[in-house]
Design a protein that fits this description.
single chain, 323 residues, alpha+beta, Beta Polymerase, domain 2, Methane Monooxygenase Hydroxylase, Chain G, domain 1, 2 domains, 6-stranded mixed β-sheet
């Protein structure tokens, strides 16, 4: 599905344009056109190629839905892709979604396979008033989208922080191996997130430094803000990676301490039982002449002796914290 929005002479964009009008509108250097392509078919990609004369290498990159974030500079446009990461209650499963951009001097083409809430919000604000992007320039429209994407990264980082606190609490509550498995799954997702954000940081760096009519000096100042935000996200993910390693070490230490305590408890219990069994084994020997064998209170004496030995050993082991 292709949606065409245009700002030309009006202060409010139009959204009733047909794709056949693109070739005429693009000739107006004062026009700002946003072409949103959702779930593109081969026919729709062919239309975009025909209207904007997309380079074959850019079209090839567009078809790689799991591509690494990248930026390519061509004569008449810039191709770049980013990832959208929605904050989720389950931070052990992050599902990044790719969005591709074709940025010309007076047009922006966005291509993605699924509806993206953050892009829809920017589009809704932009169609309500161009004041949301500050000016009728394509670079600032691109900035408003990228800035919203990175702002969602911070929301995801916040959800990750809550998950980290839950893991820290679970470490000292020993619920078995499930917590450890979730910890490893979460660490994997942190690494996946970082492998997405780090190349995007390089993309922003190239976009800022490259002298292009699509991104002028004034727009570069705004892009620098997104660049700094990405750097903060990377620093947070690096900190989380280190904290996860510390949590894992703490988990192993707590598990080892619990095992040691269990072994001490088992050893103390064995000593108590063996000491009590010693009395029973002595009086259970098959000899005719054993002291107290015919004694009226011999049975109660043996039970009392075993109980006294057991109680004394329990007190001794409690004192040294073995039980």
């Amino acid at each position: 599905m292709i949606t065409v929005s245009l700002v030309q002479d009006e202060s409010t964009p139009r959204t009733d344009l047909d794709v056949d009008d693109i070739s005429e509108v693009i000739k107006d250097p004062d026009a700002v056109m946003w072409v949103a392509v959702l779930r593109p078919t081969d026919e729709e990609i062919a239309i975009v190629d025909r209207e904007f004369d997309i380079h074959p290498l850019a079209l090839q990159a567009l078809r790689h839905t799991s591509a690494r974030p990248e930026i390519d500079f061509y004569d008449s446009f810039i191709y770049l892709n980013f990832y959208v990461v929605d904050p989720s209650s389950d931070m052990t499963l992050i599902e990044p979604r790719l969005i591709s951009f074709f940025v010309g001097s007076n047009y922006l083409v966005t291509v993605h396979d699924e509806p993206l809430r953050v892009v829809e919000e920017v589009h809704r604000n932009w169609t309500q008033s161009t004041a949301e992007v500050g000016d009728r320039r394509i670079g600032l429209l691109l900035y408003s989208i990228l800035d919203s994407l990175v702002d969602q990264y911070f929301a995801t980082i916040g959800s990750m922080s809550d998950t980290m606190e839950n893991f820290e609490d679970a470490i000292f509550q020993a619920k078995g191996g499930s917590s450890l498995q979730q910890l490893f799954d979460f660490k994997k997702q942190v690494m996946v997130f970082r492998r997405i954000v780090a190349p995007e940081w390089d993309v922003l760096n190239a976009l800022i430094r490259w002298d292009s009519p699509m991104v002028d000096r004034q727009t570069s100042v705004y892009m620098q803000d997104v660049y700094d935000h990405l750097l903060r996200v990377i620093d947070s993910l690096d900190n989380y990676r280190d904290l996860l390693s510390n949590i894992l070490d703490a988990h192993l230490s707590v598990t080892s301490n619990r095992l040691n305590q269990t072994m001490k408890t088992l050893a103390a219990s064995s000593i108590i039982l063996m000491s009590m069994t010693l009395v029973a084994s002595i009086y259970g020997m098959n000899f005719d002449h054993i002291p107290e064998l015919s004694w009226r209170f011999g049975y109660w004496w043996a039970l009392g002796l075993m109980a006294g030995i057991g109680f004394s050993l329990i007190c001794a082991f409690r004192k040294i914290d073995w039980i």
